[in-house]
Write a structure and sequence with these properties.
Its main location: membrane. It comes from Candidatus Phocaeicola excrementipullorum. The chain is mainly α. It is about 80% helix and about 0% strand. It has 26 helices and no strands. It starts with a helix and ends with a helix.
Length: about 775
């Protein structure tokens, strides 16, 4: 029996390693997004500074593990077996849940997930124990600490609202002071700004990062608290003078602030959030050692865990090991970069590829905000309005190569996040570092006018998705852990083993899928280069390359899906038809993203070139969309026909259709080859053969209409579906002919006006 429990404890530590890996990947956004977004240094340098902060924070932590020992439940009323079920369920749920969020690229709170998992597992066993209590003396308050859940929920609302308003106001004032061309407006203000920032971050490191360090005795911490005004004042004076001198020495003070802020938030994160990752396994280990030492031979169902009421004393070796794992995760995790990318993209200054679509609530918010802005414009004097607009002139923005926003905003993000967390700690509000840092970044981006009318609805949808994910985290963590704990409690070691296997399987599958997704995303480097390039000629060349790939891809997709749909109808393969339908719907979404990227590239071209290419670009893009709609109009009747088990299409129709389909596919393949090679020598020949094919399909249509009049009514439905296929096939030929011409003229260096008019007239 003891051996089985030892195996569970070992697996708890194995899951703790996974939890550290996925948890750090998620929380890296808390302290790295500002430095990465502003490109203050190479990514490797930022990782080294953050890793140093994480390691120092982890090693100097005294292991604030009490929340996992007696912060949520009262262990005196739980047996050793009860708590092992809860601890294992918490770790299995936590690892899988955080990995899902990382894969989706959405930052979430490790604090909330752990607290609500503990609540879920404790709640189920508390209810079971109350039901089984013959004395009737036990109550829910005796079993669990319900106040913790309420404090966390209140902290969510408070941190989101306060952080957003504070971020917007402070960044607005900072931008008015420094403007986007901040290097021209530093003079004496940079020393004051730098002094305040360094003082705030230094105080944050001491109070939030090192307050729980093993070398910080109660006496020394009390001395710091008693002399806080003096220490803050002295630090403010010294750091202000030092920052001003560094500015005179041509040192970028903003870069120092951002890197120091990255270190301080990483240190505080590791020191305070370490309990979220290893608190539960250490509580399980402590329970096991107590059981072995005092309860050998005793029924684990009756051995109560009074020992967990004592405060945790975490061995230094565990803290060092945890710090090393966190550093490794930070340096190697691709998912950490994925989560950071979400936060940076939602806050970037320039327009670009939007990760999220639009939602009804986001559109309503944008509409109301636009109306409010119009009201303010009408009531603010023109002189003041012009002066404010001059301070927000984005044409003068100073961005590092590839940066999403400048160093002024990155500095405000980090300093303000640190200050809000200090205020929350002082007021004993359990603020989440994830909530504060993310929402501050959103508020500062709004103040910087980064959310234009072209992108606001997408950005707000993204923010709402992330915030919604936080609330879903709490509900999901509570529910899943409650179910897992219930099954483990009754299924004993069999249930535990099955959930262990399931957790490992889900983690492996998730990482395999993420690897495939990452390869697909890395393929669109053309767009990144196009947005970052300042050379108009290079932008045009990259745009041509991007459009060429898009058109070639959709010709290839249309051909393959056309074959799949028609084969599915002929062979009555419902599964194939469903896959074709889903694939078409998915590509419709992807086409919108591709089109938006290419429109952003088109807007970066010189006006004369953009006007010349505009018609052909939209003709090609619309042709891609029409091909997808055409495929859907073919697929829907075929799927309905097969799904209803109607009579199959007669064999003679199949024999006359397949040669026509082969001709159509051959011409589409030749069209794709022309586009990819950017060689339109045979374009006229392909267009002529396409025109002949349209006539052939038209003849087949007329022939089929005669068949319908004469044929047996038994095959009427199949005949109608076949007629629809012929009609849409003829339309498909017209569409890819339009697409070929659009690509030909878009890729051309110069298109004479008369040629354009003739081509457009022919299309009509």
């Amino acid at each position: 029996m003891e051996t089985l429990y030892l195996g569970i404890v070992i697996f708890l530590f194995m899951l703790a390693v996974f939890d550290l890996l996925v948890g750090v990947s998620n929380d890296a956004v808390n302290f790295m997004n500002s430095a990465v977004g502003a490109k203050v240094a190479k990514f490797r340098t930022i990782v080294i500074i953050a890793a140093l902060g994480v390691f120092v924070g982890a090693v100097s932590s005294n292991g604030m593990m009490d929340i996992a020992r007696h912060g949520i439940f009262h262990p005196v009323n739980f047996s050793f077996y009860d708590l092992m079920c809860i601890f294992l369920a918490v770790m299995v749920t936590d690892v899988v849940l955080l990995d899902i969020f990382n894969t989706l690229g959405l930052p979430t709170s490790t604090t909330v997930s752990m607290v609500f998992e503990l609540l879920g597992g404790t709640f189920v066993l508390a209810i079971l124990k109350i039901i089984g209590d013959e004395t009737g003396m036990l109550s829910l308050g005796d079993m669990m600490n319900t106040e913790k859940a309420l404090s966390v929920i209140m902290a969510i609302f408070l941190s989101v609202a306060i952080a957003f308003v504070a971020g917007t106001v402070v960044q607005y004032i900072s931008r008015i002071i420094f403007t986007f061309n901040y290097k021209k407006h530093l003079s004496w203000t940079i020393g004051i700004f730098g002094g305040i920032a360094v003082t705030a971050l230094g105080y944050f490191i001491v109070i939030q990062g090192l307050a729980s360090a093993s070398f910080m005795t109660k006496e020394s911490m009390q001395w710091v608290l008693d002399n806080t005004p003096m220490l803050v004042g002295a630090c403010l004076v010294v750091s202000t003078v030092l920052m001003q001198i560094l500015h005179w020495c041509r040192v970028n003070v903003f870069k120092i602030i951002v890197l120091l802020g990255t270190f301080s938030l990483a240190l505080a994160f590791a020191g305070n959030d370490l309990v979220n990752f290893i608190g539960v396994p250490l509580a399980g280990f402590s329970s096991y050692t107590d059981y072995v030492a005092n309860g050998a031979g005793v029924d684990p169902h009756n051995f109560m865990m009074d020992s967990l009421m004592a405060s945790a004393k975490t061995p230094v070796v565990f803290l060092i090991a945890a710090g090393l794992v966190m550093v490794y995760a930070l340096a190697t995790s691709k998912k950490a970069q994925n989560v950071i990318k979400t936060s940076v993209d939602l806050a970037r200054q320039e327009e670009g590829d939007e990760m999220f679509g639009s939602s009804g609530l986001a559109r309503l918010i944008v509409r109301r905000a636009t109306n409010f802005n119009d009201f303010m414009v009408r009531n603010i004097p023109a002189g003041m309005r012009n002066w404010i607009n001059s301070r927000f002139n984005k044409d003068d923005v100073i961005l590092e190569n590839g940066a999403a926003f400048d160093m002024v905003r990155a500095s405000v993000n980090l300093v303000l996040s640190g200050l809000l967390i200090i205020i929350g700690t002082t007021m004993k509000l359990p603020l989440s570092t994830t909530y504060v840092t993310f929402i501050v970044a959103m508020g500062t981006s709004l103040a910087d006018r980064a959310w234009s009318r072209e992108s606001a609805v997408y950005r707000i949808t993204g923010v709402l998705s992330v915030i919604g994910g936080w609330f879903i985290t709490a509900f999901t963590a509570f529910t899943i852990c409650a179910v897992v704990t219930f099954v483990m409690y009754y299924a004993s070691f069999v249930g535990m083993f099955l959930f262990i296997v399931l957790a490992v399987f889900l983690l492996v599958r998730s990482n395999i899928k993420f690897g495939k997704k990452e390869k697909l995303e890395d393929q669109d480097n053309i767009f990144k280069r196009m947005i970052q390039s300042k050379d108009k000629a290079e932008v045009l060349a990259l745009l041509r390359e991007h459009v060429k790939d898009t058109l070639a891809f959709y010709v290839d997709f249309a051909e393959k899906n056309y074959v799949k749909v028609t084969d599915g109808f002929i062979n009555e393969d419902l599964k194939s038809l469903r896959k074709a339908m889903n694939a078409t719907d998915e590509e419709k979404k992807m086409l919108k993203k591709r089109r938006r990227k290419e429109i952003l590239g088109l807007r970066r071209l010189p006006m004369t070139v953009a006007i010349e290419k505009n018609t052909w670009f939209h003709l090609g893009s619309n042709s891609c969309e029409e091909m997808l709609y055409c495929l859907k109009r073919i697929c829907e009747p075929c799927k309905e026909h097969v799904d209803n088990n109607f009579n199959p299409v007669p064999a003679e129709y199949v024999q006359e259709f397949l040669p026509m389909r082969e001709r159509l596919c051959d011409l589409m393949e030749r069209t794709r080859a022309c586009i990819l090679a950017n060689d339109y020598t045979d374009a006229d020949k392909i267009l002529k053969e396409g025109d002949d094919l349209k006539n052939s399909i038209s003849s087949l249509r007329k022939q089929q209409m005669n068949h319908i009049q004469e044929a047996d009514s038994t095959y009427l439905k199949a005949n109608m579906v076949y007629l629809n296929i012929l009609q849409e096939s003829q339309e498909l030929v017209s569409i890819w002919r339009h697409l070929l011409r659009a690509s030909r003229f878009f890729q051309a260096d110069y298109v004479p006006q008369e040629s354009s008019e003739i081509a457009l007239a022919e299309e009509k």
